[in-house]
Design brief:
This protein has helices spanning 15-30, 42-46, 54-57, 81-91, 103-114, 139-160, 175-184, 198-210, 248-260, 280-299, 318-322, 330-337, and strands at residues 2-7, 33-37, 49-52, 96-101, 119-123, 163-168, 188-190, 216-220, 264-268, 304-309, 312-317. By secondary structure, it is of the alpha/beta class. Helix 1 (15-30) crosses helix 10 (280-299), helix 6 packs across helix 7 (175-184) and helix 8 packs across helix 9 (248-260). Bound molecules: 6-O-phosphono-beta-D-fructofuranose (F6P). Residues 9-10, 102, 125-127, 169-171, 221, 245, 274 line the site of 6-O-phosphono-beta-D-fructofuranose.
Length: 341
């Protein structure tokens, strides 16, 4: 069999580990051949492909990023895009496609599967907001990076009696903020799922200073004040209609400084959370997703996505992963609130 592989959306530590596992198991156990499509859905759309064999995946397990490149190309936004993809898969002799991606990339995979394309999905996102799976790979690495940053920021905040606002990624879901904030002992965690009250945040800042500690606030890039949005993006939309976020940390710091008179600075972690070597957990999860994905292809079990349930890897319908985002529940957030202020 001949199998196409692509990685789409924001890159994420562990993508190369999936590619390696797919190819290694595919070649040794199923005598499969592979085609690497470049830059997400742009590859099969524009017929941009490269060889993908055991030689190409050697040494990539600990490497961040993706050897196949990534993009946010949406073939459904291109006239005749679906037909182009089908034609290009046929011209490469592909019997199936493994799509490794988040809500957008796998959303496209879901629609293509409905249109008869033989596709299997592997969930990835540092945001951990895909449903159907307990975790996506990349998330653990991002949380570790954010936690280390918070640990470091505590001591400098205390030395200067400052508020430090740490802006982490998370467009719709506050998983990175919640996990790193809890692990790093943040004094306030603000997430997209729970619009925040700026007066309450300022009161918590002041109460923290009253106990002679300097507050660390972790805020997801997608968090919003209850009283209406602070302007935090330039209005540009990507091919899936998402605005580019960023800026809530700066706005929050200046608002806090203005209202409390305490010096407040923002630290934006940005793409540092996505780059570099994956954690051991992410390598383990990504490798197992890859091993199970190629077996799903061998079994002809198309339209499915690999998912982690407990310690088992299971197959779920692609639509289960992409139908609805997995958000932080009020109960989980309430656990963290014990430490606020
Ligand atoms: O989807 C993952 C993610 O890292 C989000 O947390 C973030 O909003 C977005 O990608 C940013 O992506 P980029 O800067 O690559 O467009």
């Amino acid at each position: 069999m001949r199998v196409g592989v692509l990685t789409g959306g924001g890159d994420c530590p562990g993508l190369n580990a999936v590619i390696r596992a797919v190819v290694r198991k595919g070649v040794t156990q199923y005598a499969a051949e592979f085609v690497g499509f470049c830059d997400g859905w742009r590859g099969p759309l524009e017929n941009d492909a490269r060889p993908l064999g055991v030689a190409e995946v050697r040494g990539i397990l600990p490497r961040g990023g993706t050897i196949l490149g990534s993009s946010r190309t949406n073939p459904f936004a291109v006239e005749g895009g679906v037909e182009q993809i089908k034609d290009n898969l046929t011209s490469h002799g592909c019997d199936a496609l493994i799509a490794i991606g988040g809500e957008d990339t796998l959303g496209v995979a879901t629609r293509l599967a409905d249109l008869g394309v033989a596709v299997v999905g592997v969930p990835k996102t540092i945001d951990n907001d895909l449903s159907g799976t307990d975790f996506t790979f990349g998330f653990d690495t991002a949380v570790n990076i954010a936690t280390e940053a918070i640990d470091r920021l505590h001591t400098t905040a205390e030395s200067h009696h400052r508020v430090l606002v740490v802006e982490v990624m998370g467009r719709h879901a506050g998983w990175i903020a919640l996990h790193s904030g809890l692990a790093g002992g943040a004094n306030i965690i603000l997430i997209p799922e729970r619009p925040f009250d700026i007066d309450k945040v300022c009161a918590q800042v002041e109460s923290r200073f009253a106990t002679h500690y300097s507050p660390i606030i972790v805020v997801s890039e997608g968090a919003l004040p209850a009283e209406g949005p602070m302007t935090t993006h330039n209005g540009d939309l990507d091919a899936f209609g998402h605005v580019r976020l960023g800026g809530i940390g700066e706005r929050l710091a200046s608002e806090i400084e203005g209202r409390t008179g305490k010096e407040a600075r923002a630290v934006v972690l940005g793409h540092v959370q996505r780059g570099g070597t994956p954690s051991a957990f992410d390598r383990w999860l990504a490798t197992r997703f890859g091993l199970h994905a190629i077996t799903a292809v061998q079994d002809g079990d198309f339209g499915t996505m690999m998912a982690l349930r407990g310690t088992d890897i299971v197959r779920v319908p692609l639509s289960e992963g992409t139908g609805e985002l997995k958000l932080v529940s009020p109960e989980l957030y309430a656990e963290a609130e014990v430490f606020f202020g």
